[in-house]
Amino acid sequence: MATKIRLQRHGRKGYAYYPIVVADSRAPRDGKFIERIGSYNPNTNPATISLDFDRALYWVEVGAQPTDTVRSILSKEGVLLMKHLRGGVKKGAFNEEEAQRRFDAWKQARDKEAQAFQAKKDAKAADEAKARLDAEIEKNRIKGESVAKKKAEKLAAEEAAAKAALEAETEATAAAE
Predict the structure, then answer these.
(1) Is residue 21 part of a domain?
(2) 57 in a domain, yes or no?
(3) 109-126, pLDDT tens digit by residue?
(4) Do residues 3 and 59 lie in contact, with contact meaning Cβ atoms separated by under 8 Å?
(5) pLDDT by residue (tens digit) across 6-39?
(6) Three-state SS for 24?
(7) What CATH number is attached to the domain comprising 19?
(8) Global confidence as pTM
């Protein structure tokens, strides 16, 4: 039986998520499967991947063929690298400890790169938020100056009207005397 490691489509229209399954190559895409080994959710940023590493490695080693998308997921998670390293151990190129050391070094480098990317993304978001805040503060300052100017003009007009009324009243009292 030819087995494939592939994605099944679940979810609603426009919001799909994908269980990663091992299935007979003749089975329908969303049909019967042998084992579910993980899931892939492209709707989050970054995409969420949960994978049973040991079971995925087992299926790849016994000959299950991953589809192109699943191959990239397995590569990103390090399953294909571990398969390669285990092949080197079987051939006697190096021992199991060396293979594990190489895999751990690769994983640390990958995690460091992911953290650097996330830090850069967070810094960019913080800069954008600061720029928006500065723009809003500037708009509020301009609006405040405009409101203060209008209030000052209104107050000056009221004072001028009061002064004119006072002068007219003074003239009326002076004329009456």
Answers:
(1) yes
(2) yes
(3) 999 999 999 999 999 999
(4) yes
(5) 999 999 999 999 999 999 999 999 999 999 999 9
(6) strand
(7) 3.30.1320.10
(8) 0.72
